[in-house]
Write a structure and sequence with these properties.
about 110 residues, alpha+beta, 3-stranded antiparallel sheet, about 35% helix
Length: about 110
């Protein structure tokens, strides 16, 4: 999708600069999680059992955890991975809450 910058009544195309690594995308998003999604940052690379969540955030409005998975390329099927993360969260709520408490110091 093309992006444009508005300068009064003229549009100028914004040049696309691709990311070299998924980690670059992850670092940028984590540093700006509040601005981009109004989420509280909890943990990067949160690992539980055999799964590793790229970014774990918390939505204070809905009082729910948010899992962010980064994909640099296209054509990834992430549906099964999403279901795995949902199952992990449902079956290990206490671990997610404990991580939140330890990281943020909030109850």
């Amino acid at each position: 999708m093309d992006l444009y910058k508005l300068n009064k009544t003229k549009l100028a195309e914004v040049r696309n600069i691709p990311f070299n690594l998924e980690k670059d995308i992850q670092n940028l998003v984590e540093e700006n999680l509040r601005v981009l999604f109004d989420l509280e940052f909890v943990k990067t690379e949160f690992q539980l059992n055999i799964l590793r969540i790229d970014t774990l955030g918390f939505d204070n409005q809905s009082k729910s955890f948010v899992v962010i998975e980064y994909k640099k390329g296209k054509n990834y099927s992430v549906i099964d991975q999403g279901y795995s993360y949902l199952s992990l969260l449902i079956n290990n709520k206490a671990d997610f809450i404990l991580e939140y408490l330890e990281t943020t110091g909030k109850a």
